[in-house]
Amino acid sequence: MGVIADQSLSAMLRQSADDFLTGSHSPSRLRGWIGRARPVESSLWHDIAALGWTGLLLPEALGGSGLGLREATVLCEVMGERLFAEPFVGCCVMPSLLLTQADNGPATEQLAAWQVSGERLLALAWQEQAGQMDPDLIECRVDQGRLSGRKVFVLGAEQQSVLLVSALEHGQPVIVAVAANAPGVRVEAFAAGIGAQYHVDFDQAPVLFEQALLRGQPALDALQLSLAGGRIALSAELAGQAAGCLQQTLDFVSQRVQFERPLGTFQSIQHRCVDLSIEQTLAKASLQHALTCHEQAPLTQASQAAISAAKARCAQAAILTGKQAVQLHGAMGFAEEVDIGLYLRAAMFGSAWLGSVWDHRRQFAKLTGENPIEAALEPFEASSSSDPREWSDEEFRARLRVWLTEFYPEHLRQNDRRPFLRLRGDDLTGWLRLLNDHGWRAPAWPREYGGMGISFRKQLIYQQEMERAGVGRIIDNGETQLGPTIIKGGTEEQRARILPRILACDDMWCQGYSEPGAGSDLASLRTRADLDGDEFVVNGQKIWTTHAAECSHIYALVRTGKFEKKQQGISFLLIDLSAPGVSVRPIANIAGEDEFCEVFFDNVRVPASNLLGELHQGWSLAKALLGHERIWLGSAAMAGSALELAGRLVTEMGLANDRGVLDRLACLQADLHDYRLFYAQICDRIAEADEQPGPEVSMLKVYISELLQRITEFCAEIAGDFGGIVGDVQIGSLLTDLHWPLMMARPVSIYAGANEVQRDILAKAVLKLPSAPRT
């Protein structure tokens, strides 16, 4: 009930904030301020105070609403979407978090009253140097109730503000309150984004209330909590800016007509918008993770790392979206009369404040070893059952980990030389049979067909533990693709005949989809299967068929009829590769392996009983199969292995002090961290709702395949002269092959539907961009 109540409250807050800002805060009011410090609009500030926003985070004892940071981030997201320019994060979120740590004395009560009523702004002044990330660098001094020193990049330091200032008194850190209009206070204002920032000098300025609000370690802890919460709230605002800017851009390109068609029908524009949508999705995943970590254990190293990752990702999303939005709006995007440029200015400010993208990436790299597949074993109560469906998730993980440690062959583990080794031939079948003998085969198959029948969540744990143990990559189309398709759409005779042979590796299956004229466009395939009595006669060719030379059977999409739509008249046929008329030709790939094959069919006779599903209805079977395929193709295992190799290379090449190299490595680490969060969210959604994957899973395949390519390219680049060597190379204590992973990463963005085609799907199915007119 608590989770439902929280979701309901968040939805109510979002709706009320959206209604208020839509009616009272047009971004057009922000025009005309370029180069001038825009002050806080006092009437609007009093309006949000009347709504209770300024006291949202203050406890009820101080006159506030007693809500948490999660509710504040809901408001911040909407503020970002609607381009609310007033300093809510700097003058509400951060001061409130500070006050909640102070004693509830008269001083705290008065400051809280000003905050709740909106009578005076509270502004946190903690920073003393550009690029400062931590609050413990303090040179301001308090002596006999007078403050001297300088603070920089302060928000809300206006005439009627009260500044909450960090300083030293008798060698101890303190937080004191100082009126911005007090004698001895000099404020320098400058334009920043769509508002203003201030540098503040104190020269014997009198301290309000004649006492510190916080003193000693509690003062530093309160500052840390305030900064952590502020960064999360600012991340939410930046994520909102990215979302609002993208939505305005989608609306614009869908309506703006050029060359007699909407701009949104052009593929180049659609693909740009899809990439921005992926960035926005990653930003929200990283933000939610940071918020959860902070709620569970604030100020821990893991929490701080998550916050830095979120701040960097959300800032990057807002900046990229703002820049692309200006470009996609054309000349109008460059005109101040159009609001879209305001999003870019706001993003530039938010990206820089409270730590830049690069500051936070460096912080993230410093705070985390970035090895998230090493999942800790949780305590569990052992079950007496031998059925894994009845084990808890914790027990399932522990039992599988122990079994893998004992039984997986050491010589088949992935290593630096083969960071994403693929099992083939006898190594593959031997391992699959061992899994089958011990009851660890086919986790997704129902028990009645010989599988484990475990939940989607346990399937995800299964995948994680295989990655953790360094198990070589497995391509077993019989288990992962054909088996589920037969279970869903096959006959009882087919299930009884084929499924046991898949599990025992008596039959090894390859996929026959692509053809020379039908790659990602499978509906254009031309391989024919004509019914002749109780047999089909198959003629045609398949290409890019993975490991066909090592397989005994192929499941193929074939043309069995002609209809108005190309997707009609396609059937799903099971073919024995040893049948007369079948020939297989291996194709060497650019990594030097015969991974792909051409398969030719010359009057091949196939029993009609090998038709899977209804005649002419093979397209629907193939589509259902591809959704789950892209979920597992979205695994970060290969990218994680490649990134571990990158870290080793940095050390072995003597680049551990090269700031440029380390920054690039930190960027890749943060990218993988945020992607893993997004992947987990998609998997959790499918597990909880027990639903089929939607078109958004194409985002997984697009992003992780291109990230893998960027990591392997980084490895080759930093290796210098070694990067040009084909085959094994010794670099310090590291024996590796840089050419092999670099080349093996290239087709990942092609198979299972080229990334360009996936972007087309996302543009139409997720972003709802218009289709190009038919010629």
UniProtKB/TrEMBL annotation:
Pfam family, one: Acyl-CoA_dh_N
Keywords annotated in UniProt: FAD, Flavoprotein, Oxidoreductase
InterPro entries documented for this protein: Acyl-CoA_Oxase/DH_mid-dom, Acyl-CoA_Oxase/DH_mid-dom_sf, AcylCo_DH-like_C, AcylCo_DH/oxidase_C, AcylCoA_DH/ox_N, AcylCoA_DH/ox_N_sf, AcylCoA_DH/oxidase_NM_dom_sf, Mycobact_Acyl-CoA_DH
Domain of life (superkingdom): Bacteria
Keyword Cell membrane part of the UniProt annotation: no
Membrane spanning residue stretches: none
Domain Acyl-CoA oxidase/dehydrogenase middle: from-to ranges: 510-604
Domain Acyl-CoA dehydrogenase/oxidase N-terminal: 12-81, 394-504
Cofactor(s) the protein requires to work: FAD
Cited PANTHER family: ACYL-COA DEHYDROGENASE, ACYL-COA DEHYDROGENASE FADE29
Domain Acyl-CoA dehydrogenase/oxidase C-terminal: 224-356, 617-767
Similarity-based family: Belongs to the acyl-CoA dehydrogenase family.
Annotated signal sequence range: none
Coiled-coil residue spans: none
Name this polypeptide is given: Acyl-CoA dehydrogenase
